[in-house]
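Loading example: each entry is read as two labelled lines plus one structure line.
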Amino acid sequence: MDILQIVIVIGVLMLIAKPLGDYLYHVFSNEPNLTDRVFRWVEKPIFALIGVKQRTGMSWKRYAFSFIAINIVLVAISYAVLRLQSGLPLNPSDIGNMEPTLVMNTIISFITNTNLQHYSGETGLTYFSQMAVIMMMMFASAATGFSVAVAFVRGITSKGKSLGNFFEDFVKAHTRIFLPLSTIITLVLVALQVPQTLDLTLTITTLQGSTQQIAIGPVASLESIKHLGTNGGGFFGVNSAHPFENPNPLTNVIEILSMWALPASLPFMYGRFAKSRKQGWVIFSAMMILFLVFLTVAYTAEKNGNPALNDLGIDASQGSMEGKEVRFGMAQSVLFTAVTTAATTGTVNNMHDTLTPLGGLVPLAEMMLNVVFGGKGVGLMNMLMYAILAVFICGLMVGRTPEFLGRKIEPREMKLIAVAILAHPFIILAPTAAAFLIDLGKGSISNSGFHGITQVLYEYTSSAANNGSGFEGLADNTPFWNISTGLVMFFGRYISMIAMLAVVGSLVRKQWVPETIGTFRTDNALFTFLLIGTVILIGALTFLPVVVLGPIAEHLTIR
Amino acid sequence: MNEKRNKSLFSGPIVAQALKASVIKLNPAVMIKNPVMFVVEVGAAIVLLMTVFPGFFDAEDRIGFNLTVFLILLFTVLFANFAEALAEGRGKAQADTLKRTKKEITANKVVGSGIKTVLSTELRKGDIVVVSQGEMIPGDGEVIEGLASVDESAITGESAPVIKEAGGDFNSVTGGTRVISDSIKVRITSDPGETFIDRMIALVEGAKRQKTPNEIALNTLLISLTIIFLIVVVTLRPIAAYAGIDLEIPVLIALLVCLIPTTIGGLLSAIGIAGMDRVTQFNVLAMSGKAVEASGDINTMILDKTGTITFGNRMASDIVPVGEASPDETAAWAAISSVQDETPEGRSVLEWMKQNGKTYDKALGEGGSFVEFKAETRMSGIDLKDARQVRKGAVDAIRKWLSAQGGAIPQDLDRHASRIASEGGTPLAVAVDNRIFGVIYLKDTVKPGMRERFDQLREMGIKTIMCTGDNPLTAATIAREAGVDDFIAESKPEDKIAVIRREQAEGKLVAMTGDGTNDAPALAQADVGLAMNSGTTAAKEVANMVDLDSDPSKIIEVVAIGKQLLMTRGALTTFSIANDIAKYFAIIPAMFMLAIPEMEALNIMKLGSPLSAVLSALIFNAIIIPLLIPLAMKGVAYRPMNASRLLSRNLVVYGLGGVVAPFIGIKFIDLLVHVWI
C-alpha cells in the first residue's frame, strides 16, 4: 500500500507536468495564443495602471534591476506593516508588534521565497499581516522566481539582446498562473474542511471542563499559495502537520502535487522554448532520477526505523513513526519530506528532526543540491547551470570548444558560473562553522554530538537553498540566528539569480553555432547521465565531509 | 630544423633542463600564476613548518608523518613544474636550432648607384640589397628584380630549391635562406628582431604564449573548485570540534590537495604548449594557440582545387594528333621530348605510353641534349644529335616558336586545344622543327586518399568547399570524384571572401589555405587561415598559420591537431575530477576513524590504516601527474568520428577510468605503504 500510494502520486505528477509545461510556455512565449483571450481583460488595466503599455524587451541588467527594485519596495512596505501590526486592522487576537531582528529575518525569509519561520503564526502575526505581508510575499516571491527563470530560459534559447520584459512576466505569472490556480486549490481545500475565516480564535470548553484556545483564520487561501509558490511558511507554527492546514491524506496529496507540479513542469516549458522537447526531457529525467534515488533512501531508512528504538522492542512494522502524523502514515510523510525539500518549499507535515539519520540526510542533501526540481524557477536555473558545467567539462572531449544550445561557453560565462557555484557552499559552510565557533550560535543547539551538527547544518542549508523548512530543535529566535540566517537567505537568493541573469545576458548576444554531426549533443540519455554525474561530482561531493560528520556519523554510531 | 626532429619525448638534455627548471619554478612568485598548484605549495610550506618546529605546533610525535606529507606535496608541485618545463624545453630545443641560422651576416646594400657592405642587423625596412649566388639572404623581403633559385631548407626542411622571381606570387624571400643560383635584388620588408625567423623563435620558445580563451575559462573553473574545497576543508575543523574530533592540520591539507584538481591543474599548460608543439612538428607555424584551438572548431573548409585536392594539370591522359600526323607518330615524339624530362608532366607522358602499349625510340631521346623549361619560353624539349629540335609546351608558346621558323600551323590545333581546355585539362603542343604533331592532354587527377579524408571530415561535421577556376562542368566532375560537399566554379579571389562571409554569418568557423597576394583578404577573413611559405609576404602576414612545406592539404591535419588538443584537455579534466570519488573514500574514513571507529564502514577499499590511507591517496595524487605527462604531450588517441561516438569512447576511457583507476591505484599503493605504517 505504501509504495502504491507513492507510485500513484508520482504517476499523477507525470500526467500533469507536461501539459502544464506547455501552458507555461504559452503564457510566457509572448506569441498570441488562447490564454491572451481569457486573461487580457484583467491584464490590460493593470498594464495601463503601472504604465508598461509598450512592454519593450529588457537587457539582463535592466531585468535584474527591475526585479530587485520591486523586491525592495515590497520589503519596505512589509517591514512597516510588521512593525506596526498591533495598531493595524484585523487584529482580533490583539497581537503585538514584531521585534526588529525577527522582522528582518521574516521579511527576507518571505521575499526570498524561503519562508524560514522563527515566529509562530498563531501568536506572532495578525490576520492582516498574514494576508498583506505573508500571502502577498508568497505570491510576489514566487512570481519573481518564475519571471527570472523565464528570462533565463529565453536568454539561452533566443537570439537578440532582450530577455523579455520583467513587469509583463511578473504580472502574467500572477494573473495567468498563481491567482487562478490558488483560487481553485483554495476552494478544494475549503471543501475538504480547511478553515477560511476572519473570525476570532475559538475558545472551547473541553470535556474535562477546562477551556482551550483554538487558533483559526484565513488558512485555506494561504495554504494554496504556500504550496503552489513553493513558499512553505505555515499559518500555524507546526505547518502542514497541523490538522487545520492539512486535515487528511487527500489534502496531503493535493498539497504535495501543488508544490511539485510547477517546478516539474518548468523543464518542459524550457523544452518548448528550446524548440526541442528532448532538451526538456533530459532536464526532467535528471531531476526525476535524482529524486527517486533520494526518495528510496529516505523510504528505506524510515521503513527500517531507528535501531536504538527497535532494540527496545517497540513495534517497527509501520516504520519509524516518531514525529510523524498517524493520519498520513510513514509513506505519505516520507514523500512529503522528499518533495518539500526537492521543490525547496519548506512546508513540513512531520518533524524532520526526528527522522532517522539517513532519512534526515535526504532533505538535507536535496537542499544542498537545489537542483532536484528545486524552488520556483531557481531549480531549473541551477540544473541548467550544471548542464553548462557538464558541457564545459565533457564537451571538450568531442574535440570542439564547449557549446550549449549553439552558444560557446567562454571565460565570461565561466566566471559568472564560478560565482554561483562558489556562493552556495560558502554561505552554508562558513556560517555553520561560525556557529560552532561562537557561544551565541552554540548556545541554541539542543543536541550534542553529530545530531547537533546536523541541526545547524540543516538550518543554514535550508536558508541558503531558500527552502525554509526547519530541522527544529534549534532555539533559533535569537538575534544571532535571525541575522545570520537572514543574510544567508538573502545571498542565497540574489547572488545566484543575478549571476545567472548575467550569464544569459552574455549568451543571448552570441552568434549561434550551427549544429553538425560533430556537435556535442545535449538531448539524449547519455547527457542525462553526464548531467547527474556533474551534479554529484561538483554539487554533492563538496558537502560529503560535513555530511559524514553529521547524519552519516550518527547513522553509523546508532547501528 | 634541417635534421629530422627528435621525436622522443624524453631526450636527455631536455629532461635535464626540465629537472632544473622544475626546481626554479618553485619560486612562489612564479607559482602563483598557477593557483591550483600554488595552494599545494602553500600546504607543503605549512607542513614543512610543522616538521621543523614541531614544538610550536604541538606535533612532536608526528615528525615522521609530517615529513612524509611534506615530501609528497613537494613532489606533487615538482612533477607539475616538470611537465610544464618539459613541454617548454622541447620548444626551446627547436628555437636553438633556428637561432643557429640567425648568425650575423653581411649584406650588399644598394646605396645610390653603388653598393655598400653592411651588417644584416643594420638593415631596415625599405632597404634594398643585392644577393648573389652562394650568399645568404640577409632579411625578409620581396624580390624586386631578377630570378633565382633559393635553398629554404633552413626553415622548411625541404632540400629542393625553390624559384623566386620578381612580381607574381613567388617574390617573398626569408632571411637566413641561401641563394644557390643567379642573383636577385631584394627589398627588405622587416626590421631586425621582427623577421619571420625571429617570430618563429619566439613562438616555439613559448615566450609570447598567451592563454587561449578556453584555457582561461577552464582555469576559472579549476580555481573555483579549488576555492570550494578550501572552504570545505577550512570549515571542517571547527565543525568536527563540536563532535569532539580534533582534525590534524596535515591531514586536512592532504584532504585539500587530493580534492583540488591538481592533475589537470598541473598539466594544463603543458597540454597547451605541447599542442602548439605538435603543430610545429608538422612544419606548420601557428601564430597563436588560439588559432590551433579555433581549428578544432572549424565547420567549413575552403580548399583550392589545384595543388590541394588534385595534383594540378599534369597527368597525361591522352595524346591527340593534329593535321596529318598519325597517332603513333605523335605519341612517339611526345615521348622522346619527355625522356629526359623529370617533371611530373614529363614522367606522366612516359607512363601513358607504357599503359597504352606504345613504342618509341628511347635511345634517340637519350642521345640528345635536354632543353630545360624556362618561365620565359614556357616549353622544354630536346636537341637531337642530328640537329632536329623537339619541343613540347604551352600551345601559344609552341605556335610562336613555330612561326618564328616559318612553320605552318595545322588547322585543327586550336579546336583540339580549346576542347581540352574546356574540359578542364591543359593542352601541351608537341613539335619537331617546323611541324606540330599533336597535343598532349594533361588532365587534373585527384590525389589518392582525398576521398577518404573528405569522408572523415564529413564524419567530424566539417563541410568542404572546393574553389576552382574551372568551368562548372569540370568543377562538378572533380568535386564528384573527390567527394567534396560543395564547389565554386570559375571562382575569383573575391568569391572566396564572399563564401567565407556567408558561412560565418551562419555562425560557422571557416578555414582556408592560400598563397597569393589576392588570397590575403580571404585569409584574413577566415577564422583559420593557412598561408603557404612559398606564397607572398602579404598572405603570410595576415594568415594565422604558415605551412613551411607549402602543402595546402595540411589544413586537414591541422584541424585534427586542434581537435586533439581540445580533447586532451577535456579528457584530463574529466579524469582529474572523477578521481575525487576514490580519494574521498580513502581520506574521509581515515580522518575520522580514530574518534569514530564505526567509520570503518566507509573504508570500502579496506586500506591498512588511517595513516597509510592518507599517504596512499596523496602519493597517488602526486604520481598520476608524471604518469600522465606522455599523454598530455602526445595528446589522446584521435580517429575522426562523429561526436556521439567520440564522446562515448572518451567517457568510458577517461570518465569511467577516472573513477575506477584511483580505487585500484590507491589500494595498490596502500599495500606497499602499509608494510611500513
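Residues 7 and 234 of chain A are 27 Å apart (CA to CA).
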